[in-house]
Input
Amino acid sequence: MFGAAFLALLLALPVFVVVGHLFAPHGEVWGHLAETVLTRYVVNTAWLVFGVGLGTLVLGIGTAWLVTMYRFPGQRVLEWALLLPLAAPGYAIAYAYAGLFDFAGPVQSWLRASFDWSRGDYWFPEFRSLGGAAFIFTVVLYPYVYMLARSAFLAQSVCALEIGRTLGLGPLGEFLRVGLPLARPALAAGVAFALMETLSDFGAVQHLGVDTFTTGIYRTWFSLGDATAAAQLAVVLLAVVIALLAGERLLRGSARFEQTSRRYRPLQPVRLGGIAGVAALVACLLPVIFGFLLPGGQLLAWAIATAGEVLDARFALEAVRSLALAAAAALLAVACALVLAYALRLRSGRIARAAVRLAGLGYAVPGSVIAVGILLPLAWVDHGLGAIARGVFGIETGLIIGGTVAALLFAYIVRFLAVSLNTVDASLAKVTPSMDSAARSLGASPVNALVRVHAPIVSGGLLTAGLLVLVDTMKELPATLILRPFDFGTLSVRAYEFASDEQLREAAVPALLIVAVGLVPVAIISRAITRSRPGRHDGEGAQ
Amino acid sequence: MNATRKSMQSPPPGKDILPAGLALDDVHHAYGSRPVIEALGFAVAPGEVVCLLGPSGCGKTTTLRLAAGLETLQRGTIAIASELVSTAATTLAPEHRRVGLMFQDFALFPHLNLLDNVGFGLRHLPQIARRAQAMALLERVGLGALASTYPHALSGGEQQRVALVRALAPKPVVMLLDEPFSGLDARLRDQVRDDTLALLKEQGVATLLVTHDAEEALLMADRIALMDKGRLVQLGTPEELYRRPVNAFSAGFFGDLSRFQGRAAGSAVSTPLGLIPCPGLADGTAVEVCVRPEGIKLMAENGPVRGRIAAVRFLGASALLVLDLPGGERVRARCRASSGLAPDREVSFGLDLDCAFVFPSR
Output
């Protein structure tokens, strides 16, 4: 039990370290930051949060409502295709858009050639801008809202909607006054997810030249070399995240809109034909095109063109290294989640619960904040160890733990523990306490019950949890950039380095590989959604 | 938990022979500082069904968990098959106690088919024997054809039967059932109860069944142990509990009561329904008189008490009446349904003293 509490505290440590810097004295750099860039960070972040929040809501709700309430050509395929943008990390899509709509990119070149324009003759939207970033985040992150809104709409028994109709609501009123309010908690959660991803993104905003807190933290750390100021920027970002979480809680309210009646009658979707059907198809297809097909196609085209130069021994090494690193992170994260989930199961006191929640907080915390929260204490440890080594052995040690793979793995676990914890917890909940008791009374010792009852029931969930962490780790960029050992490349770092050198075509190969891996959780999620459809009594659902 | 294979052989002083089934003696239990069971003691003989009955939160499920070894005993002793299994010092692990457990949610293992669920507790047997035995049990409850299906495909009644034979498979000495029928449809319940009772009797196992449903206890039990606030209120056959309740709680648990306050005078108490004897109570003792609805006997004419029908509820064969008495009191009566019963009618009736109980007021 103490082990589990210690583990939970250890995993929450980076957040504590960052928060602790709230009270550290403000240095010279902080003053400089406050005068010059801080306002820009705040304004940019606020606009992004506003734009992405609104955009993902509209896209997510609209597509989810169309897909669940109506039947139109292509609707079956769109149900899962709408999830596709989740596969790609924001930075990969940003690279594609930047290249695609660049002055020298294919679209503008084609326009110039077709209409015989030259520079300055025409207006064209600039994707390397705040608006471009908001657009890209919206088309990449709307699936979070879509996913949760869709399952919320599906979970609503048709009875509630039909009663709405009998009380005099038309189809639009039904949507606005029954469907939407019932789905409110799910929508709040979906937008919160999308905004957390927006806030934690580093690669996309960096490439698009939009200064936000994450780029600020990175620059303060590497260019200005001021750890305290970086941590103080991180505190501000953390405060925004916490406000976001609080807002989500508030919107969710005390209401628990679960299905109240046990008699579930599935929705009877309305068939849309003719122009209405085509309009619905187009409306749902556009997000998939802009969020996945178009940028994905561009990446694919570049990747085919440059594969010959990019694929070399170094690239192979980095790919294998990425995979190994992610696999190790997945194993460790699942192991930690198991320890915590079992500790909670055996003794679910208030303290244990709080500790586990704290440890799961990492998912809301941007990778760059976690990186700072890890590097600072490690630097103290290394300083201490270095001092001892100098004093006792008379040798210079330099960095011992900081800038090692161990620190990197720790960051991944802190960041992605919540992913594995939720999945492990959900699968462990399938083993009810009475099953434990039944197994014991049937002659199984505690260990025996673990092997014969828990292991087979939970193993599928563990595999899913591991896969999700593995993919998230492969996509991760900011923490990897900050914490990686010197000259230690991964796929995401490689994509970033190419893009920073304006070698967007070369960046496509590693980016596309990451997108391919990212398709795995999309497949898992879409399968889980169709299975958890209420009214299906096959007992396998509700993961 | 201290899970030693050997149970303690020496009986406690003053108890030479422990009973063959399940025996609890002077059991106390508290969660933190809140006592949930106090001085509880009773025994269940092999082949006997004892229902542990009481309102929710009275400690009956805790009692069951203590008997199963899922909770550590704090004070007292629990014996199974003449061996001590729980004392304040040691608790024999559940897997070594030879108890069968059954829950409201049935707790079937979702990853095992029916045959493997039933065979779960037969690990000590070689596979062929294990399968044969599990199959025989499944066939006994008419589920042989479904042996290779998985629990989620079963109806509630079928799951209940699987859970029952799974618990019985290792031939336990004691069966512990926690609200085993409350998850079922009312329509199914009577049949399932009968089948369950037959199977338990056939196996000759000592059965402790927890329920909050008085009717279920009357139907199933050889003896009922009625609990309230962690204490044993009354232990006896269903008839004893129904006919000779020891207090107002016990009387009230098995049906509606009409209650009157009064004082004992000359070994009797005067009520609006007439004089009711209360031998042994000193004059002046404040008492509560409880009358069961079926104790009110409607009479054609000239009954000792007159009243007016305030309301009628037809329940099929019988009817439930609310009667206004001349003094303004109300009393509930259950009688055979007949056409003459209508509100506002004057009726006369008498009291069956077997259905009237006098208890000193608390």
Q: What stands out?
A: The interface with chain B takes residues 430, 432, 434-435, 437-445, 448, 452-453, 456-457, 537-540 of chain A (CB under 8 Å). DSSP finds 22 helices and two strands in chain A. The first strand of chain A starts at residue 70 and ends at 71. Strands of chain A lie at 70-71, 270-271.
